[in-house]
Amino acid sequence: MIIWSIAKTTVGDAMRKKVLQIFLVIAMGLIVISLSFSQTLTFSANQGSTMDLELVKSFGLGLMALAGWLIALVMGVSLIPQEIERRTIYTILSKPVKRYEFIIGKFLGAILTLAICVALMGIVFVGVVAAKAYLAHPAATSIQGAAKQGLDTAGAAAQKIPVIDANMLIGVVMVFLQFFVLVSVVMMFSVVCTPTVNFFLGLGVYIVGLLSSTSLTLANSKDAGVFVKVFYTAIHWVIPNFDKFNVTNVLLYPEMPVGSIALYTLKMTLYGLLFSLGAMLVSIIIFEGKEV
Amino acid sequence: MSSGRLKLLWALAAVIFVAVIVVQSATDPQYMKIRKAGTPVSSVNAKESQELMVQLPGQFLLASFAGFKEVIAGALWIRADDFFDNDHFEAIIPIVRLVTWLEPHNVDVYSTGAWHLDYNFVDENQMSDKRFIPASIALMKEGIANNPDTWELYFELAWTHYNKKLNDYRTGLKYMLMAAQHQGLDPNTGKPIPRPAYVDRMIAHQYEKVGEFDKAIDYWKLARARAEASIGKHDDDTADDTALITCDRNLVLLYLRLAWRYGNMDYYRKGVELYRKMAAQKGVTPDIVAAAKAAEADYAKRMAAHNPPRDALKPIDMGFSVKFEKLKPRVFLISGALNLVKMSEYAGLASECVTHIYENDAKAPKDRRQQWINGGRVSWMLTDLDYKMVIPETFTWKVDRSKLAVWDTIPVLDGKYKSLPIDLSGNDAFYPFKAQRYRLVVWVSPQEPGTDETLQDRVGWKGEAFTGKYLDTKMQPGYRCFRWETILDRKDLL
Q: Considering only A14-18, B40-44, B415-419, B463-467, which range has the smallest mean pLDDT?
């Protein structure tokens, strides 16, 4: 119950932050505006169909990722230092609240806040994609409609654009998972670092994590020396592989022969959960020994 | 927390870390597949890649590495649209390059980029710059390499480039056949969906174009069978019925024309039988019923009289002549005569039973009667003497504009043809005339896409009726064409 109370308070505090609200509103606004980006396009071989839709999807997923990244960093870096700065932590810890309960509550609150933000953006995004699919080719959403437009029947199936694209839901989940891991990392740092230091540390870890294909290639390189191999293997294992959550290209072009993306999402969910659990445990251990 | 519990937590953290590594290793192979699939095949060479890096604004570069490359691609594409609206056509090509680099599986960008290269670089006469065609073909081939499992780009390459731009129907057929080996892909699920029926129909037309009539017949049957098989599989069958009628009608006309033009009565019989079946169908248009009856009557009459038609095998002297004039420096006129074809040539043709061209003209008031069947075209090409079109192995937008390569067609009207003034004077950079010697070729091909089918009823698919000066049988093996060539000096043009 104590953990849940701390989590709820954390969510409330975070959601009241003006900066977070602004990120959220701007991101949702831009996702809606992206609906109109392609409306004026004249330079396209396939106006009003898949090209326009792909544009809206890629913009939406990209904007969500950008906003999620900012929200995760800005929220994550300050959650614990803020309690120390405001000295509210003394009040909390003077009550029958264990330190690990405080950390777990904070983690849970941060993740819930992120989930709420991504869910809000996700609902707007999926709605926008559905609207675009419906508006782009209202007649072509059915084979009869395509036939009315004079398209070949065999080709009519090719023009059929479903309003709901399951891949976009996977995209939203992947955005959440990516920043779920980032929040865990920056919260772990926030136990020992000031918000400014933590911000840049988090940023650095995120950038290195985006280069996971490079670290993996170097770790497996036949030509690389032992030191280089060990170094990059360690980097690849220790730093969260943020790039692995980045599957927008596959989601936009599902014809790519990359195996089951649903199974990959499941594996990445497990990876995200384990990494965050590990980060939370380390935070608890450090916080137990920390003088506040 | 007791030290024992802390130790336990450390141990738990270590176990989780090992589990993270295990899960991570399990995702590595698929992750590398995903990264590889997102990397374009044979897209940019090292030098061009470095130039792209310089041209890509810093914030775009950073963002493309930071996992937002699809957003960048979208933003760049919108920028390309701005450039297009403001006629900054040159600026669009590097954007096409960047977008295909960032999103190598976006088929539309390849086809739009190729269309842009093919059509939008025009001179003062609105004549497209043909020197961009090799770049356009290279872009399409790169698109195919990155998207080999869908029919669209094979079809575009076949239709736009080899059929419409280069009149290389053999290569067009090759790519069209490749298109027919692939289905479409659902943009949302990536699952195969049927390719449009017109792809198969185009192959039949292509075979006809290259003179392989038996294969054309086979493909019409195959296209029909495919359309028939799809009836009932979709919610709406109307378009399938239309596809059946399209296949039947084209097959009938192919049979009949093979008979009319070359006298094969077996084909005539098959055509008449199929026409009869078509005419018996419900809801068929009256013109099909009338044409079927007329063809049947003509067939019966000819069989009785042992008189197979061989309309395309009766020679006509086409009286082809060419006149090249320099109106002023860099402005030329090409004109001449070509007997393609007098109305009187249609009197008594077998095709008259269906087309009624001569008959209808004879019924018209005298002042409205036509002396000629128009619809043919003469082609011309002016190039540097040593010009050879080379398709680059990798796409590059750097086109050598110091070379001259310009070509177009001129319609034949009433036995004559005359180009509009070919004005290459407006822009020195567009047509620099740097070479010392130039080649001007003027030719007539029965394969020319603008050639009317009724003209072919008299001269044949392969120009079998063509005789006269400048007859050329080497330019297109198996075909009778007319070809006139002259070598011009720089001073003849400037």
A: B40-44
A window 140-199, beta carbon within 8 A of B:
142-144, 147, 151-158, 160-162, 165-167
Domain ranges of chain B: 1-36, 38-104, 316-493
d(C-alpha B423, C-alpha B333), whole Å: 9
Q: Flag if B186 and A158 touch (Cβ within 8 Å).
A: yes
Q: What is the ipTM of this complex?
A: 0.83
* pLDDT tens-digit map of B152-200: 999 999 988 888 888 889 999 999 999 999 988 877 677 788 888 889 8
Would the CB atoms of A256 and B34 count as touching at under 8 Å? yes
Q: Residue B72: pLDDT band by 50, 70, 90 thresholds?
A: confident
CA distance B278 to chain A (A): 21
Residue range B332-353: mean pLDDT, rounded: 94
**A156-165, A275-284, B258-267: which has the minimum mean pLDDT?**
A156-165
Domain B316-493 CATH class label: mainly beta
CA distance A10 to chain B (A): 24
pTM above 0.90, yes or no: no
Considering CB atoms only, which of B92, B105, B194 is closest to A256? B105
To the nearest whole angstrom, how far is the Cα of B194 from the nearest Cα of chain A?
6
Is A281 in Cβ contact with B78 (below 8 Å)? no
Q: What is the pLDDT of residues A220-231, one digit of tens each?
A: 887 778 888 888
Q: Name the residue type at position B322.
A: V
Quick check: B116 and A43 CB within 8 A? yes
Write down the domain spans for chain A: 2-289
Give one DSSP letter per residue of B430-455, joined into a string.
TS---SSEEEEEEEE-TT-TT--HHH
